[in-house]
C-alpha cells in the first residue's frame, strides 16, 4: 500500500495584526455575523458576481448561494449582479 504524507497548506505571509488595530466590528460579534459581513462586502466588491465572490472567499458557488438564500430569508439585503444598474423588470 502506497501512502503519501500530507503536507500542510502554505498561506502567504501576512503581518500580524496588533491588538490596538483590531477592527471594531470583530469585537463582540459572533463568527456567523462576521462571516455574513465578509460575504456581503465581498459580493459588493465583486459587483454581485457570485462566481467571483465564491472564488475570493474560498468556497463553492453552491455554498455561497445557500448562504445568500439564508440571508435573504432573514430579510438581509444582498448585493445583486445588477446592484449598480437601474431597476430591471423580472
How do the strands and helices of this protein lay out in sequence?
Layout: H1 31-45, H2 50-57, H3 61-73
How would you portray this structure in words?
This protein has helices at about 30-45, 50-55, 60-75. The N and C termini lie far apart (about 55 Å). About 40% of the residues lie in helices and about 0% in strands. With about 90 residues, the chain is mainly α. The longest helix is centred in the middle third of the chain and has 15 residues, at about 30-45. The model is unreliable at about 85-90 (pLDDT under 50).
Brief digest:
The chain has 90 residues and is an all-alpha fold. The protein is built from three helices and no strands.
For this entry, give a set of tags:
90 residues, disordered C terminus, globular, mainly alpha, 0% strand
Count of beta strands: 0
* Continuous helix count: 3
Low-confidence stretches: 85-90
State the order of secondary-structure elements, H for helix, E for strand: HHH
Our Rg estimate from Cα atoms comes to: 18 Å
Note the beta-strand portion.
Answer: under 5%
Distance between the termini: 57 Å
Morphology call: globular
Compute the average pLDDT: 79
Which range best describes the helical content: under 10%, 10-25%, 25-40%, 40-55%, 55-70% or over 70%?
Answer: 40-55%
Amino acid at each position: 500500500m502506497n501512502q503519501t504524507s500530507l503536507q500542510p497548506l502554505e498561506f502567504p505571509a501576512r503581518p500580524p495584526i496588533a491588538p490596538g488595530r483590531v477592527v471594531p466590528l470583530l469585537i463582540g460579534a459572533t463568527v456567523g455575523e462576521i462571516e455574513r459581513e465578509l460575504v456581503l462586502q465581498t459580493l459588493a466588491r465583486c459587483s454581485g458576481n457570485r462566481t467571483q465572490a465564491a472564488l475570493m472567499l474560498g468556497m463553492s458557488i453552491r455554498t455561497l448561494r445557500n448562504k445568500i438564500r439564508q440571508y435573504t430569508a432573514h430579510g438581509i439585503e444582498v448585493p445583486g449582479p445588477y446592484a449598480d444598474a437601474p431597476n430591471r423588470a423580472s
